[in-house]
Description:
heterodimer, A: alpha/beta, ACT_dom (chain B)
Amino acid sequence: MLTIHDILETNQMIQKNNLDVRTITMGISLLDCCSSDGKTLCRNIYDKITRYGEHLVQTGNDIGNEFGVPIINKRVAVTPISIVAACSDLTDYVSVAQTLDKAAKEIGIDFIGGFSALVERGYTEGDRKLLASIPEALATTDLVCSSVAVGSTKAGINMDAVAEMGRIFKTLGELTKEHDALGCAKLVVFSNPVEDNPFMAGAFHGVTQGDSCVSVGVSGPGVVKRALESVKGEPFDVVAETIKKTAFKITRVGQLVAQEASRRLNVPFGIIDLSLAPTPAVGDSVAAILEEMGLESCGACGTTAALALLNDAVKKGGLMASSRVGGLSGAFIPVSEDKGMIEAVERGSLSLEKLEAMTCVCSVGLDMIAVPGDTSAATISAIIADEAAIGMINNKTTAVRVIPVPGKTVGDVVEFGGLLGHAPIIAVNTFRNDEFIARGGRIPAPMRSLTN
Amino acid sequence: MKAVITVVGVDRTGIIAAVSNIMAENQVNILTINQVILDNIFNMAMIVDLENSAVDLNGLQQLLKEKGDQLGVEIRAQNMEIFNAMHRIG
């Protein structure tokens, strides 16, 4: 039988510690929308998204009200557009992005992901057109998110794509400079992407998926931080155990919401993503969890070990609570979206190099990091290459979402608003890498034995 | 459907009576009531059954919110499954 303390604990998590369901994401396959005629393609895409997603927002709100847990975002992820649009007569895919944007607005969702290409081993004509369309597509739409996979453990790293992505981030930053390069916040570059990620900007509905599914991303850094406050000074075994138990409880809520959404929308359940996703709100920070373990400020020596423990314990606790786990499933460390990370950068304890080290042990990568506007395309490409290499060698997903802000430099702050937060511009190593990036070609896939 | 009604706020006379009245008026069956004072704050949890009630959960939430505003306490009504999911296995 439930006790009053159980009931109060749940409501305290929700009301005081920011426990929420970050997103219900509906994956929709657009493979059956293909057409040689561009206009027909766009019409098919619009019709399918608005038909499948018609009740998504209302259903999410109903579930949130009924269970008393906020469901922050409702999103849609679609088949990578480079595949869907490949057989069309379109010369660029900006009109497809605008169609996605229009459909997303029609059904009232917060974001739509899947303006994507997977080019780990090379480009198709569709991939080429999609990449070329990214700057204008993201600059002229509001809700569309784009992702490009440039590497994987099995394929190695496509360094031509890495070079191109550096240039795309720069162009997109320029095109959206009136809004502090906000366009770049909607673009992510992956190594080892996953096909069932409900989180943006990297969500897409992989071709191995069925026609449609709903997945849920839970959140709750504030709840984990609160739980650790009760075990101050205890050994790490206790810390790990406490995080596991908390992650279990958080994930059970996610599982319940996912099951309900699946039942009410009559769409199969996809996965629960166990990621701890922070927000800029006070008390909703991953950095604050690491500091609670005994670090003066996030980024101090010991941060990587603390993050490794956190990430692992969240997975162990969450796995038992869900019938199907997938997506990115780990702790996110997006700088601008995490108040503790922002403060750590501002007080000088957290650098780009330390963030890179942290991505070796957590999901997902260098995320929402504002860099000086004069950072060269080659340097951004080199940042992407470093991060892709970490993913490739460690057999994990890594990503880069950096924002080169025109006219801004270290010490300035950029304001993105909402869940995207604000970010201090972070210093980037200024030694050059132009010749390194200019080589192009492929970094071969690594061997999987002799792994030291 | 079973729901959990929680009341959180400064203790005063008549809170349980007021909430119970709303249940009676709407044929909502009260299954259990518990209360505890934590840090000088009054906390009450009531498990109710809406099976044969005259209102749905949405309607009940509305009525309870109005009553909570009058009494100066926060009253929530939630589907009980969220608590079972978090605290009960099996």
